[in-house]
UniProtKB/TrEMBL annotation:
Keyword Transit peptide: no
Annotated InterPro entries: DUF6089, OMP/PagP_B-barrel
Ranges where the DUF6089 domain occurs: 3-203
Signal peptide start-end: 1-19
Sorted UniProt keywords: Signal
Name recorded for this polypeptide: Outer membrane beta-barrel protein
Length: 282
């Protein structure tokens, strides 16, 4: 316990001493998803609101270490598709998505000497999702537990039950505008490269519906809900595209505030930090 208290005091001291190197970031914008239930790789037609809160540490005038928590919703529906095989599949999903990431952000120009600068960033993140839908009676159904493609069944040993928490690779860029040394605004676009194809619960082929429970079979293929109903295409027919993982992306606007406290002052022209020293008498 004493060690934990000592560590906390040390950490707070370091933060207080270097406070002017920290920037608090508040972001708001929209998110969207790319996968089997969306015809286009990028579109804002079905974008959902997204918010984020983070902290940046200024390593140099142009290089920042940035951590961030993001909250959003994702979803898509075959009813919006123009592809016939998707329309008759008639699937849909929604999910709440939460993400924590850590990225390196690099300004192409020095934002202390240039008011408007482009920047890029990349890093690693951890996100959690849980796709769900509603059945014909309006009941919410979480799809992972229903194993709609036969995941985990002995008949399909190559189909494992997917995890709801994964690692991703965030990459992106934007333009940053300095309103003052302490306040900056930015607009950025970012993409999350994923290592799963089950963000939407759709990936491979249709299983034998007789091997699934009744509710799982009902939500594995929903063409029979259409008017007129479309017959089940049969076991082995393509349900998704296993050769390409899903993805999601953001268009965000950011306001950053540099913490003004600490025992250092900043040269506003160069952006370099100097320790407080007594004036030199000539």
């Amino acid at each position: 316990m004493k060690k934990a208290i000592l560590f906390a005091i040390t950490l707070l001291t370091v933060i207080a001493t270097n406070a002017q190197r920290f920037h608090v970031n508040l972001l708001g914008g929209v998110s969207n998803y790319a996968g089997e239930l969306e015809d286009k790789s990028f579109t804002l037609q079905r974008a959902k609101p997204a918010v984020a809160l983070g902290l940046s540490y200024e390593l140099t005038n142009k290089l920042f270490l940035r951590g961030q928590f993001t909250y959003t919703n994702l979803g898509a529906d075959d009813k919006n598709s123009k592809i016939y095989s998707h329309i008759i599949r008639n699937l849909n999903f929604k999910t709440i998505l939460q993400e924590v990431n850590l990225v390196a952000e690099y300004d192409i120009l020095d934002n202390y000497t240039h008011k408007l600068v482009p920047y890029v960033f990349a890093g690693v993140g951890v996100y959690r999702f849980s796709p769900y839908t509603f059945d014909t009676l309006g009941r919410k159904a979480f799809l992972r537990g229903l194993r709609t493609e036969g995941q985990g069944l002995p008949n399909y040993p190559d189909r494992q039950v997917y995890r709801r928490t994964h690692i991703n690779i965030p990459v992106g860029g934007g333009v940053k505008l300095a309103l003052s040394d302490n306040i900056k605004v930015a607009a950025e676009f970012s993409l999350r490269n994923l290592f799963t194809d089950y963000l939407d619960d759709v990936s491979t082929n249709y299983p034998d519906l007789d091997l699934l429970g009744s509710r799982s079979a009902m939500l594995s293929y929903r063409g029979d809900e259409l008017k007129p109903p479309i017959p089940f295409p049969g076991e082995g027919a393509l349900r998704g595209n296993p050769d390409q993982n899903d993805a999601y992306y953001f268009l965000m606007f950011r306001i950053s505030y540099r913490l003004p406290f600490g025992n250092s002052s900043q040269n506003k022209t160069s952006g370099k930090y100097y320790k407080n020293c007594p004036p030199v008498k000539l």
